[in-house]
Amino acid sequence: MADLNQSELQNLRHLIGAHETSYQKLNTYSSQAVDPQIKQVFTKAAQDSLNTKQKLMTFLND
User: Fold this and answer.
1) Which residues does 37 contact at the CB level (< 8 Å), separation at least 6?
2) What's the pTM?
3) What is the DSSP string of 10-53?
4) Cα(43)–Cα(2) distance, rounded to whole angstroms?
5) Comparing C-alpha atoms, which of 1, 36, 25, 40 is closest to residue 50?
6) Rounded distance, CA 62 to CA 27, Å?
7) Whether the Cβ atoms of residue 52 and residue 26 lie closer than 8 Å to each other
8) How does pLDDT run across 16-58, given as a tens digit for each residue?
9) Vertex 28 angle, CA 11 and 59, to 5°
10) Segment holding 58, helix H or strand E
11) CA dihedral of residues 6, 11, 12, 15 (deg, nearest 10)
12) 41 burial via Cβ count (<10 Å: 0-12, 13-18, 19+)
């Protein structure tokens, strides 16, 4: 793991959780959207949140 202090680790975990929450919500919105363009916007935003979460998690694995 990278040399993170407790505050940085806590902030990192908070950010990871926030992106997971965003991913779940955006996926739900996407599944409920009727308009294909709106569905696409939500799907892309969900994927972006998931990608960011995965990038943040690499800091825990260093």
Assistant:
1) none
2) 0.86
3) HHHHHHHHHHHHHHHHHHHHHHH--SHHHHHHHHHHHHHHHHHH
4) 32
5) 25
6) 29
7) no
8) 999 999 999 999 999 999 999 999 999 999 999 999 999 999 9
9) 25
10) helix 36-61
11) 160
12) middle
What residue ranges do the domains of the chain occupy? 6-61
How far apart, in whole angstroms, are the C-alpha atoms of residue 20 and residue 46? 9
Distance CA 39, CA 33 (A): 5
Q: How far apart are the first and last CA of the chain?
A: 4
Sole residue written with tokens 């694995």: 61
Question: How far is it, in rounded angstroms, from Cα 29 to Cα 27?
Answer: 5
